[in-house]
Amino acid sequence: MADDGITELIAGPHAVAAALQTHPDTVDCVWVAKERSDERVHGIMALARAAHVLVRQSPRTALDRMAPGLAHQGVLARRRRVERPREEDLVAHLARLTQPLVLVLDQVQDPHNLGACLRSAEAAGVHLVIVPRHARAPLSAVAARAACGAAERLPLYEVANLARTLRTLKDAGLWIVGAAADAPASLHDCAPPTPTAWVLGGEGSGLRRLTREACDVLVHIPMLGHVESLNVSVATGLCLYESVRARAAAAVGSSEIALPSINH
Questions:
Q1: Which of 72, 3, 69, 67 shows the shortest CA–CA distance to 32?
Q2: Element (DSSP H or E) covering residue 42
Q3: Closest C-alpha to 74, from 84, 83, 85, 62
Q4: Engineering a disulfide at 76: which of 31, 34, 199, 227 sits with its beta carbon 3.0 to 4.6 angstroms away?
Q5: Against a cut of 0.85, is the pTM above it?
Q6: C-alpha distances out from residue 228 to 44, 109, 200, 204, 238, Å
Q7: Which residues neighbour 59 within 8 Å (Cβ) at sequence distance 6 or greater?
């Protein structure tokens, strides 16, 4: 099925379920492979029917033809494109947050990586994600499937000038912490400051010069083995969960999280 610029396909059970939960009014049809009959699919069909969305059961081969190359796992949905948050509303959005945690992705080109970064961000409690408007992977069906529903739940801001946006975040009181392989400070040297915007660069090239210069702090992830770098989605998860750990420790008034006692 061709993308006409107005409608789009969503592939995979997680992404389709999230769309039905967050934007049910945009979905007009769900296709389920006849070969699937399990609890997850039954739940998706129930969500669709509750939202008065048409459900069609078709052979898996029909879904393959509708979405060539997509690993749909027997579930597809068609919907109107969802309007993303507007760049001019970013400051007002930040003002409504308490101790915001923000993820900024600089030129992530691979849609699988973009989706995986969104998945890690949603799991870590990130409030919003910022990407440049150009020179990055689109939020396609591939990215949405890799995000496992996070693409539906996380506000994603596309901005024209990333360095300028980072200065806007600073003016809003956020610390800008960038990840760079050549940074002298380690990710584990100290707890990340709050509120925080983590900035991760694209595959291979890392952060652009102006993006680096806009950061308050640059840190590297310690590499103890023979590999020289991590996939950007893995690096994103490690950085974000440093903030999760630090915030959890601060909530209990300690620099370390207490472990339960071991009963022998």
A1: 72
A2: helix 39-50
A3: 62
A4: 31
A5: no
A6: 42, 20, 16, 11, 16
A7: 33, 34, 35
Give first-to-last CA distance, the chain, whole Å: 61
Cβ–Cβ under 8 Å, residues 105 and 44: no
Residues 6+ apart with CB under 8 A from 61: none
Do 169 and 215 form a contact (C-beta atoms < 8 A)?
no
Q: Which two tokens stand for residue 133?
A: 């408007």
* Residue linked to tokens 């969960």: 241
Nearest of 128, 82, 124, 86 to residue 105 by alpha carbon: 128
- CA triple 176-179-185, angle to 5 deg: 90
SS3 per-residue string spanning 140-185? CHHHHHHHCCHHHHCCEEEECCHHHHHHHHHHCCCEEEEECCCCCE
CB 49 within 8 A of CB 55: yes
